[in-house]
Structures are given as C-alpha cells and as structure tokens.
Write a structure and sequence with these properties.
Elements (H helix, E strand, L loop, with lengths): L2 H6 L4 E2 L5 H6 L11 H4 L1 H14 L3 E3 L7 H6 L6 H16 L4 E6 L14 H17 L4 E7 L2 H13 L5 E5 L16 H10 L4 E5 L6 H14 L4 E4 L5 E4 L2 E4 L3 H8 L8 E2 L7 H11 L4
Parallel strand pairs: 1-10, 2-3, 3-4, 4-5, 5-6, 6-7, 7-10
Antiparallel strand pairs: 8-9
Helix pairs in contact: 4-6, 4-12, 6-7, 7-8, 8-9, 9-10, 11-12
Bound molecules: zinc ion.
C-alpha cells in the first residue's frame, strides 16, 4: 500500500517521536552534527528507527533534519550533504521494509531569506534540490518539511519537492502560544501555513515541536488549519517543555501524560506522533490508547 492509500483510509497512523533526543542517549553530543551519524554511526540511527517501529510507528522520519548546505557549512562538511541524506533514507528504508513508510526529514535551513535575512533564494533552492533529491534517491516515501517557521521557505521547499517529483509531501510548522493564537517564530498563523501547503501541492499539513502545551491551544491550531484547507492533519508535539537539570535537558511530559493530552484531539488528526523529548514509550502509550477497535 502506498502512503497516499494509507492516508485515504479511516485509521489513525502513528509516526515516530524524537530522533535527536534519542541519539543523545546513545552518545551524540549536544551541538554536534547529529545528521553526520547517518555516515559515522548508521547502526545507532537504525536502532532508533527500529525502537520506534517496534513501539508501533508505521512512519519514521530520517535523521536528516539539518542536512542542508547552510547548517553543514558550519561543521565544515557541506560536501557530504548528498551522501548523508541518501544514507539517512537508506538506513530508515531498510528498517521499515514491510513495516511502513519513510519520511525524508527536511528542517529549516537556519537562515532567513532575503530581504529579511541574507540567504539567497537560489542558494536555498540549490541546497533543497540536493537534500530532497538524495532523500528520494535513498528511497524516502515522502518528504517531511518540519519545524517550519517562515512561509517563504515553505513555499520554496514545496516548489522543489514538486520539481523533484516527490510522491508525497507533508508540511508541519513549529507553533508557539501568543495572545492572538498559535504562531510560528516568524509570525505565521496555522491557517496561513495550511494555505501555503495546499497551494504548493502538499498532501498533509500540521504541527510539530513548538511550545504549545494546552489542549485548547492544539485544538485552536487544528481548527484554524482545517478551516483553511481540506488537507489531512498531522500532530507531533514535544514531550512538554524542556528544562536544564545538572547539564542534562529534561522533558517532563511522560508517555501517559502526552497520550492523555492528545486524547481529545485524535478525532481531528490523521497522523499522530511526537517531537523533542518523546520516546518509543510515548508512541507505545499513544498506540495503546488510540488503537482502532477490532
Ligand atoms: Zn522538536
């Protein structure tokens, strides 16, 4: 079954939870390039995918969130971009063979586009062509534009995904609570993101990461997205907000607590998972609670 066919069915699909926070438990140092582990520690990346698949995730995201030229240049490894993205997709594909689908993760490039920032659209486009092209070449079933904040970057990434014939595209934004409802760091509202996603040919829109933590905030976000487009919705929140304890970053929302928070929202979404701080146990708890009745 293709991902498109699976989305067309009634059942809720489960994606995975945090990748970076899981790799940190396996030894990845904070502030080092986690995506490089696709080349240096493929077994540990595969181990995280496998733990999520075992917990019940039928969609897993590749370890390629920052696999863009702007981020890799800071680590002096921009020349490895295609190799890393291709490896990331292949590692996930091997784990998910016969078990589900691979979402090729594309995070924001970390720079603002002209005229607000200094990144040139053509540079971003060139970087996205390499990242998205290599993810598809490595076998990704979909491209996941995630933790997005700037609408111009989303629109450009959608153009590239269409140009590269991505078979399925998901867009999720990172939203924070504000007085006027959920907004991304760049000020985009849920309905604006949903409109840009639909117009750019995305198949699913939603939210991941971010600082929303109340049921009412998530509900408002989903309602606003739904009012602006007919696209199925995806939700991958963090396991609460992090705080630092003895050099460690701790997330306070445990598996049962996150599953309870999401309970009333399930009827509005098609894909449910987690982001930073969420673990295979969080996915397990969600799946137990929301599995379709046989
Ligand atoms: Zn996150």
């Amino acid at each position: 079954m293709t991902l498109k066919e699976a989305i067309g069915r009634e059942e809720l699909l489960f994606s995975d939870g945090g990748m970076g926070t899981e790799l940190q438990k396996l030894g990845l140092e904070i502030n080092s390039c986690g995506d490089l582990w696709c080349l240096t520690h493929p077994d540990r990346v595969a181990q995280v995918h496998r733990m999520y698949a075992d917990a019940g995730s039928s969609l897993v995201s590749t370890n390629t969130f920052s696999c863009n030229r702007f981020a890799l240049e800071k680590h002096g490894i921009a020349d490895k971009q295609a190799e890393m993205a291709r490896a990331g997709a292949r590692i996930a594909k091997e784990v998910m063979a016969g078990r589900g689908w691979v979402l090729g993760s594309v995070g924001p490039c970390g720079e603002m586009l002209e005229p607000v920032g200094t990144a040139k659209p053509e540079e971003l486009r060139a970087s996205l062509r390499i990242q998205i092209g290599a993810l598809l070449e490595g076998g990704a079933d979909a491209i996941l534009l995630e933790t997005m904040s700037a609408l111009d970057e989303v629109a450009l990434a959608l153009e590239v995904a269409q140009e590269m014939n991505a078979p399925f595209v998901i867009v999720t934004g990172a939203f924070d609570p504000t007085k006027s409802g959920p907004r991304t760091m760049m000020g985009a509202r849920p309905e604006q993101l949903a409109k840009v996603a639909a117009e750019g040919g995305a198949n699913v829109v939603g939210a991941n990461c971010g600082r929303l933590s109340q049921e009412s905030e998530f509900l408002l976000l989903l309602e606003r997205m739904h009012a602006a487009s007919d696209l199925p919705l995806m939700l991958q929140p963090n396991a609460g907000q992090p705080d630092a304890q003895d050099d460690k970053i701790v997330y306070h929302c445990g598996p049962e607590a996150l599953a309870s928070l999401l309970g009333p929202l399930v009827k509005h979404v098609k894909i449910l998972g987690g982001c930073c701080g969420s673990t295979p146990a969080h996915i397990c708890a969600m799946k137990e609670r929301f599995k379709p009745q046989a």
